[in-house]
Amino acid sequence: MTIFDVDIDGLTGGPTDLDRYRGSVLLVVNVASRCGLTPQYDKLQPLYDTYRERGLVVLGAPCDQFGHQEPGTAEEIDEFCRTSYGVTFPMTEKIEVNGAGRHPLYRELVGDGPDIQWNFEKFLVAPDGTVAARFSPQVAPDDPELVAAIEKLLPH
């Protein structure tokens, strides 16, 4: 099983077929609207815009487990992301990334690794569904190490 086999709904309703991203490079990020790191949206969207034609998909996963920093409804989160940051990349339903309620997506991503530290932790997923790298919340989406890891996985 890989993340492409996980069932998850989209933020605005209905299932998100992760299988359609098989063969793509995914950057999965647990996001929050009221976090000191929320301005990372300003770098996630341009990253998506720059590399999506080559096969990068940024996938935002709203989570309210860290300091109650994503308290809104799906509609409020969607509105905030679109109007405040121009987000066009796909977003999942609000999920839990740690603990007994950890969503299967994050069970696949984390595996035997440590729990998620905070909002905006990043998982880089290879086209075959394996986790290629994990970046701390403080690593900006335009960090040269992260960008190099993405470019290494994308077709040339």
Automatic annotation (TrEMBL):
It holds the Pfam family GSHPx. InterPro entries: Glutathione_peroxidase, GPX_AS, Thioredoxin-like_sf. It comes from the Bacteria. The active site is at C35. Keywords: Oxidoreductase, Peroxidase. The keyword Cell inner membrane does not apply. PROSITE patterns: GLUTATHIONE_PEROXID_1 (PS00460), GLUTATHIONE_PEROXID_3 (PS51355). One of its GO terms (molecular function) is peroxidase activity. The keyword Oxidoreductase applies. Signal peptide: none annotated. CDD domains: GSH_Peroxidase (cd00340). GO terms for biological process: cellular response to oxidative stress. Belongs to the glutathione peroxidase family. This is Glutathione peroxidase. The lineage of its organism: Bacteria, Bacillati, Actinomycetota, Actinomycetes, Micromonosporales.
